[in-house]
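Sat 14:20. Reprocessing the chain from the morning session after the first attempt stalled halfway. Input below, unchanged.
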Amino acid sequence: MTAFAANSILNRIGVAQYGMDPMDFATIRTAAGAGMLWLLVARRDMARPVVLAPKRFAGALALAVYMIGFSWAYITLDAGLGALILFGVLQVIVFGWAVVEGQNIPALRWLGAVIALVGLCVLLWPTGTAPPPFVGSLAMVAAGASWAVYTLLGRAEPDALGATAGNFLLCLPLVALATLFGSAGVLSIGGIISAVTAGAITSGLGYALWYRLLPQLPTTVGGIAQLSVPVIAVAAGVALLGEELTARLLIAGVLVLGGIAVSLMTRR
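Finished this time. Tokens:
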């Protein structure tokens, strides 16, 4: 979850501080992730993963829509509202799919999810009166739905590293096509470094670790755990970017983390 939160911080640094076009950032991020993952795959003493498989295409498409939607949405959305839309959509889809599959979801897990979602709303709900930008909101809804699909696809992956490497490789040309619809941005050294770090470390290795852990987690627990990402991102903003620590942040953080703790409790 810390790696996922770092993606938001690095995206803000590359686009907001260094003036990169969001599509350029997404392309460099995806390329760096693919390079790092295939370097690790090449060093293993086992057969190379199968790339041209139906499940790989599904994972690559979901990853590409997430990458593009995530970057595009932050052109018009502020970070807080964007995170609220992303993880709110994720939570609804993951829990909805668990219900469709007939999974037995304990009452404490439902309660924990509601508490965490309320905390997220307290933290990120905008205080202004202007309505959120429609196009940016729609892009973030698409990103949230795609990340939910990517999460669900990863539950049965026997080779987490190989699957993530294949997803990134097939995702790269799809994300690169999106640069045709971007605008002229600045390709500075700092922006490129932030995009490469987001791709190679917090995306490539972070997503491989997530695929490794997913088979060990119930579907709904995987969804609830990701509600901690915006809290970690805001806390990182306070610690690293000098943002203000407020009572609203503290209350929301307690609610989100408390909700996650409640959802993980089991009756003896």
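The two ends are 28 Å apart (CA to CA).
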